[in-house]
Design goal:
The complex is a heterodimer of chains A (275) and B (447). Chain A is of the alpha+beta class. Chain A has helices spanning 3-28, 35-43, 57-65, 78-89, 124-129, 146-150, 176-180, 205-211, 221-225, 250-254; strands at residues 99-103, 156-158, 164-166, 186-190, 195-197, 231-234, 237-240, 260-262. Helices cover 32% and strands 11% of the residues of chain A. The longest helix of chain A is centred in the first third of the chain and has 26 residues, at 3-28. Chain B is built from 13 helices and 17 strands. In chain B, the strands form four sheets. A six-stranded mixed sheet of chain B has the order 1-14-13-17-15-16, sandwiched between helices. Chain B has a four-stranded antiparallel sheet with strand order 2-8-7-4, with no helix packed on it. A four-stranded parallel sheet of chain B has the order 11-10-9-12, with helices on both faces. In chain B, a hairpin with a 7-residue loop joins strand 13 (292-298) and strand 14. The longest helix of chain B is centred in the last third of the chain and has 18 residues, at 429-446. Classes of the chains: A alpha+beta (275), B alpha/beta (447). Chains A and B meet through helix 5 of A and strand 16 and helix 13 of B.
Chain lengths: 275, 447
């Protein structure tokens, strides 16, 4: 027998043997994976921003497949992704309420007083560490634009008055700006809510007035005029419960310092309860 | 000829001590109103024990805390409590403070604790029990007067397992401009020695080393008179910033390295400032708590720079007034030295226990720079006394890579500012490292 034949037969036998072993192994040790995970990952935006609370789009897709995460859990994808996800999972679309960021400070260069001249690095977190920043108000916006730098979606810019503006159409409510702000003046709230109390100062009325002409002075007029009890004044600051607000805008009219603002065109979102 | 004791890194800024080093310590009269912040130390803030309208006596406790790491606050004058409210402090934040109207009598409190030392002879043998000394230091509210403000009583009570070989008395005063410690050494050498002996007794240290920078020959000469073989030694260290840093001093004098994240007692050393030693001696001799300290008022922006013995709680504006007022338009007022001092925007803030000086800079001295791109020259690496790579840490902090910053030792940074000082591109290195430290601590708190 020639050497060629020997090698052909031996390699053939070896090949057949190993392939049988592979087939058995693949059946026996098969990892059951949900085929929907790949489909789900395909419809997600793929930004891996972490706004859903998971490590990235893949782990969010896995959580979706196990039913752990809600179908509308991706704030970046919004309503269209929620619909696709619901379709893949074969569940009813629970709807998507879109959140947007809101800046709760109106005290820009024109309104708030400066107590010092800050010439350190233009980073709000460092300015905040350095003697609490240069603004008279120790609660308000520092105006260095750290939130704008943190935004990955072109949804923010600093205006001429030294305050960040939010382009709500681009905002995905990923929360990067909220995490970046050392003063906690940015919040995420439903896009339909139109009335905002744009101040976070817990300073007493007199002190707040001294450092900023649009700061909340805790006069309680808004609290008294609100028909649904959505506004409460605690610790020298009015706060609004968006769930109770009916966007009647009475508080906007009575606010003596213009802290409360109505975003033109938004609300009324629901009928007054029990009226 | 011997080589001076040295350590790695450091910078040689203009020392500018000539403004005030020859000026004897003057006693500044107590101001009409003192503001006593209830947190002047590292640790738990004190709770006020007086209320508005109360009469207080000089040395009376006005704030205390039940926490272990804390130091009581005493009234530095006698008079009436005007208010107990948050007031701005040197850190820029409002701190709960007791505001006292001075009646000018300086009536000391009667049940003042008895002095535990009878004689003020610096050569005496300390026979007082160590516990008694610790109690006296704790009751007097003595904290590290070099700027750290760590409660001294806690510091001289090291954990049982550690054995203290050396007590290092830190007379380096490496911050430019400041001369308060130097004047204390030259004018109260007996009390510094006595305080050092008391601290050594309290901590169970075997040997006392007084470390002084080579640019203070007068102080070295005066203190060397008290040197006792195998007991007290005066050592000259190199004139270089930050020679007065705890870790740098231990490295220079004893060639021991404090481990990363560790404390000096782990290598058998305790470090105390000369002013702290002076305060301890004062307290043990008179029974009076810590209500005054020596500060330097200096810089080209002040008419009469000098060294002053001031009451704790004296507002900065009174101090500026006492020193002849501003010399022209001040550009910057700092609490502390130019390297690590805190810029102030309000002269109503009071002197606290850790305030070593008030520095007033003119426009010429306080220059501003625009940062340029890093050229990777590694000068910051060369000067870093704690063996870090500031350029890397800054880049990590700018890109919010906190975990990498921690890996590269951001938490070991002592914030001395050498890197920022030496940087030819004038980058904000130490600022970003501080940000990284803050974010790392915040992340640790979350986990």
């Amino acid at each position: 027998m020639s050497n060629t034949l020997v090698s052909m037969i031996s390699m053939g036998v070896l090949g057949i043997g190993l392939s049988i072993a592979l087939v058995i192994a693949s059946k026996k040790f098969a990892v059951e994976s949900d085929p929907r995970v790949d489909d789900l990952e395909g419809v997600l935006p793929g930004a891996n921003c972490g706004a859903c609370g998971y490590a990235g789009c893949r782990s969010f897709a896995e959580a979706l497949a196990t039913g752990e995460a809600p179908t509308n859990g991706c704030p970046v994808g919004g309503a269209s992704v929620a619909e696709l996800v619901a379709k893949i999972l074969g569940v009813s679309n629970s709807g998507f309420s879109r959140n947007v960021a809101q800046v709760l400070c109106k005290g820009g260069c024109a309104e708030a007083s400066q107590r010092a001249d800050y010439d350190g690095p233009q980073d709000c977190r460092i300015a905040h560490m350095t003697q609490g920043g240069d603004k008279g108000c120790t609660y308000g916006c520092l105006g260095c634009g750290t939130c704008v730098a943190a935004c990955n979606f072109d949804a923010m810019a600093m205006n001429e008055n030294g305050l960040p503006m939010i382009f709500e159409d681009n905002c995905t409510a990923c929360g990067a700006c909220v995490a970046a702000c050392p003063r906690d003046i940015i919040i995420l709230t439903g896009e339909e809510y139109g009335v905002h109390i744009r101040c976070r100062s817990h300073a007493s009325g007199r002190e707040a007035r001294q450092v900023c002409i649009v700061g909340c002075i805790a006069c309680r007029r808004c609290e008294k005029v609100c028909p649904t009890g959505a506004i409460t004044v605690e610790n020298n600051l009015a706060e609004i419960n968006y769930d109770k607000c009916i966007v009647c805008r009475k508080c906007v009219e009575v606010c003596p310092v213009n802290t409360i603002e109505w975003q033109e065109g938004k609300g009324p979102v629901r009928q007054k309860v029990g009226a | 000829m011997k080589l001076l004791k040295n350590f790695k890194g450091g910078v040689h800024p203009n020392y500018e001590k000539q403004h005030s080093e020859d000026k004897p310590i003057q006693v500044l009269p107590a101001p009409e109103v003192v503001v006593m912040p209830l947190q002047q130390h590292v640790g738990a803030p004190c709770d006020p024990v007086v209320k508005k309208g109360d009469q207080v006596l000089m040395g009376q406790v006005i704030g205390e805390s039940s926490y272990a790491i804390s130091a009581p606050v005493h009234s530095s004058v006698s008079g009436t409590v005007l208010a107990v409210e948050p007031r701005p402090s040197v850190t820029g934040r409002s701190v709960m403070s007791v505001v006292i109207q001075n009646d000018g009598q300086d009536t000391p409190i009667e049940e003042q604790q008895n002095p535990i030392l009878k004689s003020s002879d610096p050569n005496q043998r300390i026979d007082v029990d160590g516990n008694l000394i610790r109690q006296a230091i704790n009751a007097a509210g003595v904290v590290g007067l070099g700027g750290g403000a760590f409660p001294t009583a806690v510091k001289v009570t090291p954990p049982d397992t550690s054995h203290i070989e050396y007590l290092l008395i830190n007379g380096s005063e490496c911050e430019p401009y400041l001369t308060a410690d130097q004047r204390v050494m030259e004018e109260y050498p007996d009390k510094v020695i006595l305080g050092a002996k008391l601290l050594a007794k309290a901590a169970g240290a075997e040997k006392i080393i007084i470390a002084i920078e080579s640019n203070k020959p007068e102080a070295i000469k005066i203190l060397e008179k008290y040197a006792v073989p195998n007991e007290i030694e005066v050592i000259t260290v190199v004139t270089k910033y930050p020679a007065g840093g705890e870790r740098m001093l231990i490295k220079a004098v004893l060639n021991r390295e404090v481990p990363s994240g560790g404390y000096p007692h782990e290598v058998g050393v305790l470090v105390h400032n000369v002013s702290t030693a002076w305060a301890v001696a004062e307290t043990c001799l008179t029974g009076r708590p810590l209500i005054e300290r020596v500060i330097t008022v200096t810089g080209s922006g002040i008419k009469e720079p000098g060294n002053y013995l001031v009451r704790i709680g004296t507002p900065f504006k009174n101090i500026v007034e006492a020193a002849g007022g501003f010399n022209g338009q001040p550009e910057r007022v700092l609490c502390g030295g130019p390297m690590m001092g805190l810029a102030q925007f309000n002269l109503d803030v009071p002197v606290v226990k850790a305030t070593s000086g008030v520095l007033i800079l003119t426009e010429k001295e306080a220059q501003k720079y625009e940062p340029l791109p890093c050229i990777k020259c590694a000068r910051c690496v060369d000067v870093c006394p704690v063996y870090l790579m500031p350029l890397k840490l800054e880049a990590f902090a700018m890109n919010e890579m906190w975990e990498q910053a921690e890996e590269y030792g951001a938490m070991d940074c002592i914030e001395c500012g050498c890197c920022t000082y030496i940087c030819p591109s004038k980058r904000y290195l130490v600022h970003y490292i501080r940000l990284a430290k803050q974010e790392i601590i915040a992340a640790r708190g979350k986990n």
